[in-house]
Hints:
- It is a single chain.
- The protein has helices at residues 36-39, 43-50, 68-75, 80-83, 87-94, 129-138, 197-219, 221-228, 251-255, 266-274, 293-303, 316-322, 326-339, 341-350, 393-396, 406-416, and strands spanning 15-20, 52-58, 104-113, 119-121, 150-156, 161-168, 236-243, 259-262, 278-279, 309-314, 353-358, 374-379, 402-405.
- With 425 residues, the protein is an alpha/beta fold.
- Helices cover 34% and strands 18% of the residues.
- It is built from 16 helices and 13 strands.
- β8, α10 (266-274) and β9 (278-279) form a beta-alpha-beta unit.
- It is globular.
- The chain has two domains: 15-84 and 248-416, Alkaline Phosphatase, subunit A; 91-243, no CATH class.
- The site of one zinc ion (ZN) has 6 residues, from α12.
- One zinc ion (ZN) is lined by residues 21-22, 68, 71, 318, 359-360.
Amino acid sequence: MVIAWLRSSGCEMRVILVVCDGLGDRPVKSLNGLTPLQAAKAETLDRIAAGGECGIMDVIAPGQPPGSDTAHLALFGYNPFETYPGRGAFEALGVGIDLGPGDVAFRCNLATVNEAGVVVDRRAGRISSDQAKVLAEALKDIRIEKVDGVQAIFYHSSEHRGVLVLRGEKLSRRVSDIDLHKTGVKVPTPRPLDDTVEARRTAAALQEFLEKAQKILKDHPINQERIKKGLPPANALLPRGAGTIPKIEPITKIWGIRAAAIAGGGLYKGVARAVGFNLIQVPGATGTVNTNLRGKVEAAIKALGEYDLVFLHIKATDSVSHDKNPEKKVEVIEWISRELTPLVDEVFDKGYYIAITGDHATPCEVGEHRGDPVPLAIAGPDVRKDRVEKFDEVSCARGGICRIRGMDLMKILMNYLGKVPLFGE
Ligand code: ZN
Ligand code: ZN
């Protein structure tokens, strides 16, 4: 396959990083032993592979199943083992909350508990956003009185989800999860996870907030109404994933670049914001299979006019993998490939760089994240082409990038932009 690269003189160097969540997979029986990527007809993805260099990537480390949050930290060039600040902070940043140093944020579910304090429904019958918003509003006047100098702020995010921020002196993210991801268990009391004043103060403040919240929620007219209609009341909060903002140098400073992110899911927006990306909001970008991918691609093309690095996140591949639906994953990959076409045209026309990969494998037959390496392709005007012509796990393993770690990717991309300083003389 011959690809003509045109780089008009004076054109800026740019790179777009496309991450399809949970893209990597294993041979699937119902696909005759092929992976969904192998089974898909994805011409545009193959164009990237054929036009550049391919490899496979252990996003965290060989055999280590990554969470999407730690995986993205690695893809952005940070050591996740040193910088991971807990998921709550990313969630908060993702819904637009500005966290200060020292703030501790939790992801929260509005849930249903019975008289004995046992969790009956972790999502309160998937309560609507409209009702959840009113309930969140009723929690805004809760004052923490038993722990000095701590303020609690509760935000609604979407449907049954919210974010709780504890703000004040001497707080820690070392407190236990209240949401045990199970029904039929008693709601636990928050426990400090280490023997520090900070952890004890945080657990006590959390405890007080939860007790007060439960009282308000129990008597709230919305819940009375739900009970009358036979719906589960949202009468408890289940926080988890306590987190603080990471102490890291922004990606823009490290490399001296302008960086923009386009994502639908709150978590991805949060990680991107935490490391210094500017967020570009796209209407209808939902982080689901029904996202406005066309709008995201248009926004990415536009952003390449202004930013050195553009990150585009696509969630749908992971969602269908968790649903254990390989046939749908093939469809989703083919859809992504079609929708990326104008972006790849733009990249090839302008002589930009593009990297496409996944943040982890989510094998469809397993339905969970696994530590298998993910395929990676990087194309650009002066990238050494290898002989790989198809973008999939097996073909990419024969490519010139060979096998790298996720943390190496950002430096490889910045090297093409000429942003990596010389080591030695
Ligand atoms: Zn992921
Ligand atoms: Zn996932």
